[in-house]
Hints:
Blueprint: E1 4-10, H1 12-22, E2 26-32, H2 38-49, E3 54-57, H3 59-66, E4 74-81, H4 88-94, E5 100-103, H5 109-121, E6 126-130, H6 139-145, E7 153-157, H7 160-169, E8 185-189, E9 194-198
Parallel strand pairs: 2-3, 5-6, 6-7
Antiparallel strand pairs: 1-4, 2-4, 8-9
Helix pairs in contact: 1-2, 5-6
Amino acid sequence: MIDKKVRYIYGIHAVSNIINSDHNKIKKINLKKNYTSKNLTNLFTQAIDAGLYIEESDADKLSMLCESNKHQGVVCEIEDIDLSFFNLDNYLLTTKNPFILILDQIKDPNNLGACIRTANAVGCNLIIKRKSNSSPISPAVHKASCGGTSGINIYESNDLNGILKKLKKHNITCLLYTSDAADERSSLDLGGRRIIKKKRGGGGGG
Length: 206
């Protein structure tokens, strides 16, 4: 049995996006009491049309749920699989053209959300991120991704080296970027893996 976790998404655009793309994951939508916003009215109609359960909540509860006061009057509760349970082997066997982004030690939730948003926009179908020493997929990440976490697989693991070796066995070309390269720009061919390093000043996770 696959473990599931409750996650929270907030912000009008992010919630609207998941209603359109993955509404079956949604357990409940918490909407601000006595709202007057036209955008929230449209979101309410969208949720009703999708047959979703809506609960009115005060602003303090919304802030508590998503750990932010920038919720724009809406917090969506979703039930999703534990990100550690993704079946990478099955993905590699069944996906015709794998397009994977691997993220190592992205600690800032806004940066992680931006990476996810961009990956989704360019057609990436899997994001693999380091589980430890890295930002979790938090409400802030969902908000920064502007709905980019919908419709894309996300897998957490601490064995990124093992994953790269597995990709190599499947003849998948990997382009890696690091801010800690010794040269301004260097390139290495590692038997099927092409690694590009570009120095960008100031190492460490972003």
